[in-house]
TrEMBL record:
Boundaries of every Circularly permuted ATP-grasp type domain copy: 75-452
Signal peptide range: none
Taxonomic superkingdom: Bacteria
InterPro entries referenced in this protein's UniProt entry, alphabetically: ATP-dep_Glu-Cys_Ligase-2 (IPR051680), CP_ATPgrasp_2 (IPR025841), UCP005522 (IPR016450)
Record protein name field: Circularly permuted type 2 ATP-grasp protein
Length: 476
């Protein structure tokens, strides 16, 4: 295997080439395998993914056909001790996020205290004045959260992004595990890997716990999808099926007798919890975008009346803003009284004069992101950009500095992938999935590992050519 440069943390191998403890059992198994058979297994996995429909669409491209997200069969492995620290940090952060969102829509104590400047909220396009003074059923805003982590050393996990709106990818996490167990069942008898198959059941229970009080012991749950042409439609259908919930589109729903109800063969039936995968703007044409055909006219009034739970709550997108992200250390400390267990990546806010001057002077060394950007779009990776690209981005920064933040180019950790020439290191990140309800915070062990399949690339997003891996958390 080709080891990465010494400044990149290799999660499988130590600098002297020895195998790290997390991978001992896996590497013993791997040494006994026939390479040709492994390559055949990889082709079989791709065939299974295509037959199952595990694909995604890329918007805005002329050839936006369905694509497979490439799956790599070398697992990413995390020890029990490493996971304990990571999960404590995630729980702390998610609790702080929920308290922060509640505060922003109520007394705004963090702004009154001077810890968060008013401009960050004022300039936030996804802050919803319609949510002011309203508390969702159960007091939960962030029912499902994805926290993107990167690693730069043995104990150096950092938060790269918070996804509090509609985090995607959990279906790929589950399908990756099922595929690995089908291809290599013997591996799971040798390595004590914590299971993740109970996620759909836990999701259903967590959503049910957030239902309005009058809903009874068996609330009705539905998943709202924009439809079959949405890039994540497979995931919407998968989760509805796995939870035993209804999969609905806006046209299937209407407000009847003060409740949101879905059309069935027996007439309309009330819904208690709606796990929506439709953005705030399109949720209710009477309250938000009047041209939307994806949402339900009048649903927001029903929501404000406490007659339905919407997960995640409208307005949670404020926490996804990368300018807000830069204040997360202060936010965690303000709402928990503790120092953050998981640090942020160092971030320069280009809206601040001194930070902008630094970023402009060091543009070729930094990663610059739009504060509302996602999916790897609208960003600059300085070290891999041409002079022309750097100058074009410089002009954007000067014109609208408040639209951007900048971060150092991190030496992301690597995990091996299986290539035609054998194992080769590639950069990875990790998105653990978190469920929040009045009963507490539950973190699925592991999450979705995204991998940059191109040698030297730091961009792991599937829309930008990245793939995924099964993520293992070992038991003690």
């Amino acid at each position: 295997m080709n080891l990465p440069p010494a400044d990149k943390f290799d999660e499988m191998h130590a600098p002297d080439g020895s195998v790290r403890p997390a991978y001992h059992e896996y590497c013993r198994w791997l040494d006994q395998q026939d390479t040709a058979q492994l390559r055949k297994k990889g082709a079989e996995a791709e065939s299974v993914f295509r037959r199952t429909g595990i694909t995604f669409n890329v918007y805005g491209e002329d050839d936006a056909e369905e694509r497979l997200i490439p799956f790599d069969m070398v697992p990413r492995i995390i020890t029990a001790a490493e996971w304990r620290r990571v999960s404590r940090g995630i729980e702390q952060r998610v609790r702080a996020l929920n308290a922060f969102i509640h505060d922003l829509y109520h007394r705004q104590e963090i702004i009154r205290s001077g810890r968060l400047p008013l401009r960050v909220l004022r300039d936030n396009a996804v802050w919803l004045p319609q949510m002011v003074g309203f508390t969702p059923p159960g007091g939960v805003y962030t029912h499902i959260v994805g926290i993107d982590l990167v690693r730069t050393g043995p104990n150096d996990f950092m938060v790269l992004e918070d996804n509090a709106r509609t985090p995607s990818g959990v279906s790929y996490m589950l399908e990756n595990r099922e595929t690995m167990m089908a291809m290599f069942p013997e591996l799971f008898t040798r390595a004590k890997v914590r299971p993740i198959s109970d996620y759909p059941r836990n999701l259903a229970a967590s959503l049910a716990a957030c239902a309005p009080e009058f809903s009874g012991s068996r609330p009705t749950i539905a998943v709202l999808t924009p439809g079959i042409y949405n890039s994540a439609y497979f995931e919407h259908a998968f989760l509805a099926d796995q939870m035993g919930a209804e999969l609905v589109e806006g046209s299937d729903l209407r407000v009847v007798d003060g409740r949101v109800q879905m059309r069935t063969t027996d007439g309309f039936r009330p819904i208690d919890v709606l796990y929506r995968r439709v953005d705030d703007e399109y949720l209710d044409p009477l309250t938000f975008n009047p041209s939307s055909v994806l949402g339900v006219p009048g649903i927001f009034d029903v929501y404000r009346a406490g007659r339905i739970t919407i997960a995640n709550a409208p307005g949670t997108g404020v926490a996804d803003d990368k300018a807000i992200y830069s204040f997360m250390p202060e936010i965690v400390q303000f709402y928990t009284g503790e120092q953050p267990i998981l640090p942020n990546v160092q971030t320069w806010r280009c809206a601040e004069k001194e930070s902008l001057a630094y970023v402009l002077a060091n543009l070729s060394e930094l990663v610059v992101k739009e504060v509302h950007g996602s999916g790897g779009y609208g960003m600059l990776i300085g070290p891999t950009s041409s002079k022309k690209e750097l100058e074009a981005f410089r002009a954007k920064l000067v014109a609208k500095p408040e639209n951007y933040i900048a971060q150092p180019t991190l030496a992301l950790s690597t995990c091996p992938i299986f290539t035609a020439k054998g194992l080769a290191p590639r950069h990875v990140d990790l998105r653990p999935f978190v469920l929040c309800s009045p009963n507490g915070v539950e973190i699925t062990p592991g999450g979705l590992t995204r991998v940059a399949l191109k040698k030297g690339s730091l961009v792991v997003n599937s829309s930008q050519g990245g793939g995924t891996k099964d993520s293992w958390v070992l038991d003690d």
